[in-house]
């Protein structure tokens, strides 16, 4: 195709482009499952390509390294979770309720999508990646809760970082076989108290079921 011939923005992808996208998707899914099963360090590029059923050399047409594909795996799942988080935050005017739903959604997702959960728990630099993706959202919602006088906490950014660490810890305990509902409720209860919520109200928030719009639209079960 001549360089001076414009391509319509809605032109269909070429067969080659579709093939490259399909191969990249297979590599990401293979890496996702292997890293969840074995951890980042024990997973090799050869194993990823074998599980994806693509040639070893094809890997380097899409990714520079194992670190590179790990970032792609995380980004693919984090984008989906981010959409759910943003939807909850936009729908729920009470930020204490919104945050309790977001936290329950994270921990529920670990139960019903254990590959995602194990990837977050076992991936290299998982907390740093979680912080980069979600700590701003958490800080914004906690700050909004302070403005509503629902929360009485001064160190909003520190609270947001502690929240991410607590959610990763809760995921790990659940995936190791701990009682999922108990761990979920206790984690949310502790975090609500951290934000300054009174114990009785913290317990109520910790046991709120996920709303229908989350469970229905994002394939997550209500509690």
TrEMBL record:
<dbReference type="InterPro" id="IPR050624">
    <property type="entry name" value="HTH-type_Tx_Regulator"/>
</dbReference>
<keyword id="KW-0805">Transcription regulation</keyword>
<dbReference type="InterPro" id="IPR049513">
    <property type="entry name" value="TetR_C_40"/>
</dbReference>
<keyword id="KW-0804">Transcription</keyword>
<dbReference type="Pfam" id="PF00440">
    <property type="entry name" value="TetR_N"/>
</dbReference>
<feature type="DNA-binding region" description="H-T-H motif">
    <location>
        <begin position="44"/>
        <end position="63"/>
    </location>
</feature>
<keyword id="KW-0678">Repressor</keyword>
<keyword id="KW-0238">DNA-binding</keyword>
<dbReference type="Pfam" id="PF21306">
    <property type="entry name" value="TetR_C_40"/>
</dbReference>
<feature type="domain" description="HTH tetR-type">
    <location>
        <begin position="21"/>
        <end position="81"/>
    </location>
</feature>
<dbReference type="InterPro" id="IPR009057">
    <property type="entry name" value="Homeodomain-like_sf"/>
</dbReference>
<protein>
    <recommendedName>
        <fullName>HTH tetR-type domain-containing protein</fullName>
    </recommendedName>
</protein>
<dbReference type="InterPro" id="IPR001647">
    <property type="entry name" value="HTH_TetR"/>
</dbReference>
<dbReference type="InterPro" id="IPR023772">
    <property type="entry name" value="DNA-bd_HTH_TetR-type_CS"/>
</dbReference>
């Amino acid at each position: 195709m001549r360089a001076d011939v414009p391509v319509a923005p809605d032109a269909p992808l070429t067969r080659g482009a579709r093939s490259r996208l399909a191969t990249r998707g297979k590599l990401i899914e293979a890496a996702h499952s292997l890293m969840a099963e074995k951890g980042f360090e024990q997973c090799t590029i050869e194993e990823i390509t074998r599980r994806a059923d693509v040639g070893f050399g094809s890997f380097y047409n899409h990714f520079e390294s194992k670190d590179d594909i790990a970032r792609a795996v995380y980004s693919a799942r984090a984008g989906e979770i981010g959409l759910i988080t943003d939807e909850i935050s936009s729908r729920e005017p009470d930020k204490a309720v919104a945050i309790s739903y977001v936290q329950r959604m994270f921990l529920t997702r670990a139960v019903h999508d254990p590959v995602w959960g194990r990837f977050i728990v076992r991936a290299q630099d998982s907390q740093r990646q979680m912080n980069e993706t979600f700590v701003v959202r958490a800080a914004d919602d906690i700050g909004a809760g302070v403005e509503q006088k629902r929360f009485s906490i001064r160190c909003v950014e520190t609270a947001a970082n502690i929240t991410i660490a607590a959610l990763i810890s809760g995921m790990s305990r659940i995936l190791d076989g701990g009682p999922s509902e108990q761990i979920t409720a206790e984690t949310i209860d502790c975090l609500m108290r951290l934000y300054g919520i009174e114990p009785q109200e913290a317990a109520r928030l910790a046991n709120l079921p996920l709303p229908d719009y989350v469970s229905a639209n994002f394939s997550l079960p209500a509690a």
